[in-house]
Amino acid sequence: MENVQRREFLRRAGSVMLAAGMSAGAAQVFAQSKIKLGAKDALIVVDVQNCFVPGGSLAVAKGDEIVPLINTLAKSFQNVVLTQDWHTPGHVSFASSHAGKKPFDAVKLGYGDQILWPDHCVQGTEGANLHKDLAIPTAQLIIRKGYHKDVDSYSAFMEADRKTKTGLEAYLKARGINSVYVCGLATDFCVAWTALDARKSGFAATVIEDACRGIDAQGSLAAAWDNMKKAGVKRIQSGAIV
Ligand code: VGL
Ligand code: ZN
Q1: Share of the chain above pLDDT 70, in %
Q2: Does the pTM of the predicted model rise above 0.85?
Q3: Which of 79, 101, 198, 227 is the most buried (most CB within 10 A)?
Q4: What CATH superfamily is the domain 35-240?
């Protein structure tokens, strides 16, 4: 390029950048800046259990893919809580507990509509164990949920009767935590309900989308994102953190 042409090119490139509201330097900083995490933030790793990964009884497609990413994410947090779906044998959420019903049918229970699932995450079984590659030695609390035989609990905060608390809210508040980041399985059930209840309890809530996988039964994934958006749940990718 000749000098005059070159100067003209640079002048135009510069005005494009200014039109976008950024200097070249600012654009670079913007691309690289990560969310600042501290003592008031917690990562909640939802239900990364054998039953929910390929080979399990309620397998979420590609559910195993998120395990290494979650291990990496956890290193950025001072506070990490793990959850385990932890059902009794013959749990009310199992299709096998309802004569004539099959998995993914819906029934009306005392507390509302319940989707019926294959038997999964029965207390003390291999299927209920955390995935063997989940490696988060710094995790401070494992909260179990869904252990009342007649009540399900997708949410890590509140059972499906919408009255019975798991204790997670009080635990987090007692520790001065005001913002939770949620990842794990499944996006449209336990992750979404946990994030929604976090908002109801007054926490800032963010779902790390690529560190989750969904079940997506009858449009449930799109509906979950819609509900979360309306409730003020933020949606980010892991690159905003790591
Ligand atoms: C879940 C269905 C039934 C979940 C748990 O972890 O998302 N989904 N139980
Ligand atoms: Zn369950």
Answers
A1: 87
A2: yes
A3: 198
A4: Isochorismatase-like (3.40.50.850)
